[in-house]
């Protein structure tokens, strides 16, 4: 599935309320419970202060202006100012505290996810595009952070605010209060009918935006292939389609929203107008005072704010539920390959390796990729793994590194089952160089020291010289301190390979795994690589997924893998004598080489 398709097949944006997830989310608040209690108290006091304003105003109108009492006017104006000032101060405080805890919670959650992610086994990453995992760590943690922090406080604050207003309105005049709520059923009907439509359109707008991002990502990553195949026109059409869908979804959402909310406000206003009309008449009747009706109307104005805030928090809550489900799914995934309870440190190994009747499948209910594989390798031997593509060569080294555990049988190092060793002590003694070595952003030295930070400068220099990296480094602007970009894009394929050799040599593993590069480099670099390789392999048990006849011929043991089985094993001479699959492979390669040489000579 392409990135774009994954994005169009967007995860659900909202999920019904789930008490279990809510409890788990609230757990993240626990370390900050004291501060949060303080926030709730401050918010509550602030709400009381804010609710007192219309009443103060009413007194000011009735007792001050109405009775022409300047002392009351002075005092109440001062009180009003004081209330506003304290309110502002309290708001400043609780906003600061909420932001502080919000950031702390986000920090904790992101850190926990990142730490956990690094422990997960390859199988977890096999079936998930990197973009999706990244979006979980960024977007989904944000959604949860916003809810457990701002959202919950808003909920408490606005709910008590709303309750306070209703109580005051009923306390002031229950008949007038009932009259002002006359439009509520109609409002409820409109909002409950239209809100899902608005939310749905926004959700579509977001998911099409995500598809736009996915498409951009795929285009940037694959720009070489796109241009090489001249696919720009086709890509434009595809992008146009997604872009159009995004525009339409946005327009629908904004049209609905700009119709519905003014409508809601107008209907709300109708209720207020009825109160104004009826209240004004009662003021003239002398049944109520001017200050009273002013305060009453003021509370009515305030009524809508908490309602719309609560409806927003509600959708925030549902989208946080969807995010929580995705995040907890990652956090609840146990690493498949992990230290057994009785795992021991693997002592310094000699390097004997044996596979005993090992079978393996990548997925349950799928056929075995390795079938009953057995072989013995003595310490210091060089093993060449050869065979057609998809035969299972990489899978063998994956099991040796314990990236996956064998489904049946056992993998032994110096006679000890790798499952009994702690992962760290096992992998510390192994080194792996893949065809396209991953280079991290940082300096050449950082990359060299990746497996052994404590190495001395001399060791670093020596490793660099051994693999002929020093010649490349001396041509770089800052030598070993030259900054490399992510994936080492400034370096050529051959240079990246030599750097990877240097990195492994410095970590000095007892067992080395090497996926020999198939891509051709110029003869000089090839010669450097071969020389570096000899240095690297010397004195270590080495498994080479070999493509070059020269490497294969030099091997102490050749394992010919076919359809997940060891079809033949032995030395070059033994296998040539056997005249089987290996002999055939060698003949094919030799005749290919001859025809290339013939062609070169003819030209
Ligand atoms: N992560 C994975 N999930 C599912 N199946 C996989 C996975 N990796 C490899 N396979 C399958 O397992 C089989 C063996 O793959 P493996 O990579 O070991 O072959 P290989 O001999 O190293 O091939 P090549 O020389 O092309 O690298 C193949 O059929 C492949 O499709």
Automatic annotation (TrEMBL):
Task: Specify the ABC transporter domain's residue ranges.
Answer: 353-588
Q: Where in the cell is it found?
A: Cell membrane
UniProt domain ABC transmembrane type-1: residue ranges: 38-319
Topology class, membrane: Multi-pass membrane protein
Q: Which PANTHER family match?
A: ATP-BINDING CASSETTE SUB-FAMILY B MEMBER 10, MITOCHONDRIAL, ATP-DEPENDENT PERMEASE MDL1, MITOCHONDRIAL
Q: Which InterPro entries match?
A: AAA+_ATPase, ABC1_TM_dom, ABC1_TM_sf, ABC_transporter-like_ATP-bd, ABC_transporter-like_CS, P-loop_NTPase, Type_1_exporter
* SUPFAM superfamilies, alphabetized: ABC transporter transmembrane region, P-loop containing nucleoside triphosphate hydrolases
Give the GO molecular function terms.
Answer: ABC-type oligopeptide transporter activity; ATP binding; ATP hydrolysis activity
Keywords in alphabetical order, please. ATP-binding, Cell membrane, Membrane, Nucleotide-binding, Transmembrane, Transmembrane helix, Transport
Q: Which SMART domains match?
A: AAA
Q: Which GO cellular component term is one of those annotated?
A: plasma membrane
**What protein name applies here?**
ATP-binding cassette subfamily B protein
Residues annotated as transmembrane: 35-60, 72-90, 162-191, 260-280, 286-304
**Originating species:** Paenibacillus endophyticus
């Amino acid at each position: 599935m392409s990135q774009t398709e994954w994005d169009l097949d967007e995860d659900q944006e909202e999920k019904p309320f789930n008490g279990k997830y809510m409890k788990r989310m609230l757990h993240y608040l626990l370390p900050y419970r004291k501060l949060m209690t303080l926030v709730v108290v401050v918010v509550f006091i602030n709400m009381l202060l804010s609710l007192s304003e219309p009443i103060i105003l009413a007194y000011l109108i009735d007792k001050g202006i109405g009775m022409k009492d300047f002392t009351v006017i002075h005092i109440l104006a001062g009180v009003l100012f004081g209330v506003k000032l304290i309110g502002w101060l309290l708001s400043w405080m609780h906003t600061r505290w909420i932001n502080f805890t919000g950031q702390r919670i986000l920090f904790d959650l992101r850190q926990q996810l990142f730490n956990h992610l690094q422990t997960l086994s390859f199988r977890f990453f096999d079936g998930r595009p990197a973009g999706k995992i990244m979006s979980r760590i960024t977007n989904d943690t944000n959604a949860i952070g916003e809810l457990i922090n701002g959202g919950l406080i808003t909920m408490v604050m606005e709910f008590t605010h709303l309750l306070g207003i209703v109580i005051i309105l009923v306390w002031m005049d229950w008949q007038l209060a009932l009259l002002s709520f006359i439009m509520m059923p109609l409002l409820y009907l409109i909002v409950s009918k239209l809100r899902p439509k608005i939310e749905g359109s926004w959700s579509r707008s977001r998911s099409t935006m995500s598809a736009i991002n996915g498409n951009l990502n795929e285009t940037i990553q694959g720009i070489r292939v796109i241009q090489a195949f001249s696919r720009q026109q086709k890509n434009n059409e595809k992008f146009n389609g997604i872009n159009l869908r995004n525009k339409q979804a946005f327009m629908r959402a904004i049209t609905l929203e700009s119709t519905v909310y003014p409508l809601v406000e107008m209907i709300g206003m109708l209720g207020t107008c009825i109160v104004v009309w009826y209240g004004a008449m009662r003021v003239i009747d002398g049944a109520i005072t001017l200050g009273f009706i002013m305060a009453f109307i003021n509370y009515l104005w305030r009524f809508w704010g908490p309602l719309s805030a609560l409806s927003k928090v509600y959708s925030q809550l549902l989208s946080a539920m969807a995010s929580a489900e995705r995040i907890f799914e990652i956090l609840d995934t146990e690493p498949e390959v992990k230290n057994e309870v009785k795992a021991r440190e693997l002592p310094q190994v000699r390097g004997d390796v044996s596979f005993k009747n090992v079978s393996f499948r990548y997925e349950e209910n799928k056929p075995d990729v390795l079938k009953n594989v057995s072989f013995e390798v003595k310490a210091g031997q060089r093993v060449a793994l050869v065979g057609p593509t998809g035969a299972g060569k990489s899978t063998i080294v994956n099991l040796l590194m314990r990236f996956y555990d064998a489904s049946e049988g056992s993998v032994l190092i110096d006679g000890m089952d790798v499952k009994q060793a702690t992962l760290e002590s096992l992998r510390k003694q192994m080194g792996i160089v893949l065809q396209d070595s991953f280079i991290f952003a940082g300096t050449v030295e950082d990359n060299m020291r990746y497996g052994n930070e404590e190495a001395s400068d001399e060791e670093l220099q020596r490793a660099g010289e051994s693999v002929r990296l020093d010649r490349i480094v001396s041509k770089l602007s800052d030598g070993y301190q030259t900054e490399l970009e992510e994936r080492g894009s400034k370096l050529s394929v051959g240079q990246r390979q030599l750097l990877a050799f240097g990195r492994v040599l410095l970590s000095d593993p007892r067992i080395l795994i090497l996926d020999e590069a198939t891509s051709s480099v110029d003869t000089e670099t090839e010669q450097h690589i071969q020389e570096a390789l000899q240095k690297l392999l010397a004195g270590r048990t080495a498994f080479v997924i070999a493509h070059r006849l020269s490497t294969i011929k030099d091997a102490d043991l050749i394992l010919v893998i076919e359809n997940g089985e060891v079809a033949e094993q032995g030395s070059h001479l033994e296998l040539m004598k056997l005249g089987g699959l290996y002999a055939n492979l060698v003949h094919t390669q030799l005749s290919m080489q001859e025809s290339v040489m013939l062609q070169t000579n003819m030209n």
